[in-house]
Amino acid sequence: MRILRRSAFVLAVIGLAAACQDPPAVLGPDSGITLTNQPGMFHLKIHELDNVIQDTNFTWVSNESTATVIHNSLVVHGAAFVNILDAKGVLVSTSSLVYEADSVTRKGAPGPWTIQFQFKAATGRVDITVQNP
Amino acid sequence: MRVSVGVVLAIIGAARCASAQGLSLFGVPAGVVDSPPAFADPKDTTTCFSCNPPRRVLRGFGELMIVQMVPWTINAVVRDKEWARVDLESWEENLENPWEWDNDHFIANQFGHPYHGNLYFNSARSNGSSFWGSVPWAYAGSLMWEMFGERFAPSANDLLNTGTGGITLGESLYRLSNLVLDNRARGSERVWREIAAALINPIHEFNRLLDGEVSRVGPNPPDWRPPNGLQGVVDLGYRRIAGDNSFSGSTATDQGIAAFRISYGDLVKDVRRSPFSHFEFQGEVADKASQGERGRLSQLTARGTLGGITLGDGSKARHTLGALLVYEYYNNPAYEFGGQSVYGGLISEFHRANDKSVRVTTEVLLQGIIIGATLSDHYYAGEGRNYDYGIGLGTRLRATFVKPGRALVSFGWGGRWLHTMNGAAGSQHYQGGGVGEFRYFVTPKFGIGASYYNYHRKSTYADYPDVTQTSPMLNLFASAAMPRLAR
């Protein structure tokens, strides 16, 4: 019985704390955004995500048919995804923003590519590089 | 991996060490019990220093913290991992934000977490707590790590796998470490026994070091040895996994395998006793080339009894309604499943009146999957997760014929349904198949065997076509019984 009471107390504390979750936000000046977007090289850093719910797109010029995606993000709560579409609008890469991982896109048409970010109640930071090999 | 190999070797040694036990082929006692002078009166703590250890909550908590601090220090300080740099802010975030599902690799979530849960469990179990008294420690240790040990959101799959898997592995390894230990031993034998126990259960051995028990000589507690027999077996062999339902052709996979299996106590006789009075502990490694990125560990399972009631006990048959706690880790080229389950149902034994030269045991069990993970055809997370998580139901039907000391024939069917809660949207997985096994011991020490598993899977997805897979597996192996079988 004592164990049950203690467990109920712990769960109540966790429940109360969960009720204090930060309100949803969008990217803004406080997010600390640094963007490098030039042909062959795309680099986005967002220093602070705090429960961000937002979709945002960038157009980037890919000189080649493939690109390397270098992840160094840390999204500790919620989820964040990156989708990359080639010049014809074909999806060549989809992934969550993760910590320390590299990948290569599928082959696509060179030219203006679309890099889509989806933030779903994401908390943490973003550091992603997309570059031609 | 080196530690894992050491643990496996130590566990195999455990079977060898129980030399004074009634020997059997998978839990059938041969009628020999440990000689009385080996055991002490459990109430006599003056002579039996390992009997009735006091419940040391503070020491247990300290050891739990050490278990938390070691991996945290390695990641935060040595490896400089940002996710391990916790502070008051990260603790607040973890308390405030919703729980999520962890996306780590299969081996990390389905083996690494339960192994750590075993250490949490043994922080209490090796400090005088009962089985049930140690259960909350496995979950509390996991909760502590999820909330305060890393910056990532706490996850339900980690809590359930660490807690529940920690209990199953923890009690199995606790009993196996006791099996290795012998307080009567001296000299080099004693040293090797203590080293083996440390590899199997480092928390338990740490406490023996603190209490000065590693070198003291005295009788063994009676509960260090199973009352109804013990059998270990090591198999070395070959497996062919059919690709596209065909054993021939280029899609089939060949594997070299090494496996061990320990049956502690007797399923039918011990299911009504204290938890894990009977358990089975199995492991298997396969060659690296065929396993690829899965890692060499292709199987680790533990299933222990939780309790039961006798429905009938006659001269020719015994029927028991029993419950078991089960940890499963399968990761081979045919399939991937890991999870924590409770099994319950009818366990029976049949034999001729006054003649146990052949014994038949049957299991008709229903499986409740508390948390299960299985390969997904369509889910992939960047962190490496390629499997769906869910809850489900299953069944295990099995009949085993044993001629003690000589042969075993077993066949049955098992299946499970997993309803995905996180992973590929709207997916369901149905998997299982018929299984058969044959073992024959040419001598009391060595034997041969074969087993067959007709694995089949059907996965349905909300957004994709159904996927069906049939991958029969054939194993051929040579076996060594440890200790040797009594005939």
Structure description:
The complex is a heterodimer of chains A (133) and B (487). The radius of gyration of chain A is 19 Å and the shape is elongated. In chain A, strands 1, 2, 3, 4, 5, 6 and 7 form a 7-stranded antiparallel sheet that branches. Chain A has 133 residues and is mainly beta. Chain A is built from 1 helix and 7 strands, in the order αβββββββ. The model of chain A has no long low-confidence stretch (mean pLDDT 88). Chain B is built from 10 helices and 12 strands. Chain B is globular, with a radius of gyration of 23 Å. Chain B starts with a helix and ends in a 5-residue tail after the last strand. Chain B folds into 2 domains: 36-222, no CATH class; 228-482, Porin.
Keywords:
heterodimer; A: 133 residues; mainly beta; Jelly Rolls; seven-stranded antiparallel sheet; 1 helix; 13% helix; B: 487 residues; alpha+beta; Porin; 2 domains; twelve-stranded antiparallel barrel; 37% strand
Q: Which CATH class of the largest domain in chain B?
A: Mainly Beta
Shape of chain A: elongated
CA-atom Rg of chain A in angstroms: 19 Å
Task: Describe the largest sheet of chain B.
Answer: 12 strands, antiparallel, barrel
Write down the domain tally of chain B: 2
In short:
The complex is a heterodimer of chains A (133) and B (487). Chain A has 133 residues and is mainly β. Chain A has one helix at 2-18, and strands spanning 33-38, 41-62, 68-71, 74-85, 91-96, 101-104, 111-131.
What is the topological layout?
The complex is a heterodimer of chains A (133) and B (487).
Chain A: H1 2-18, E1 33-38, E2 41-62, E3 68-71, E4 74-85, E5 91-96, E6 101-104, E7 111-131
Antiparallel strand pairs in A: 1-2, 2-7, 3-6, 3-7, 4-5, 4-7
Chain B: H1 2-17, H2 57-78, H3 88-96, H4 106-125, H5 131-148, H6 156-180, H7 187-200, H8 202-210, E1 230-241, E2 253-264, H9 267-270, E3 279-286, H10 288-291, E4 297-313, E5 317-331, E6 336-352, E7 355-375, E8 387-403, E9 407-422, E10 428-441, E11 446-460, E12 467-482
Antiparallel strand pairs in B: 1-2, 1-12, 2-3, 3-4, 4-5, 5-6, 6-7, 7-8, 8-9, 9-10, 10-11, 11-12
Helix pairs in contact in B: 1-6, 1-7, 2-4, 4-5, 4-6, 5-6, 6-7, 7-8
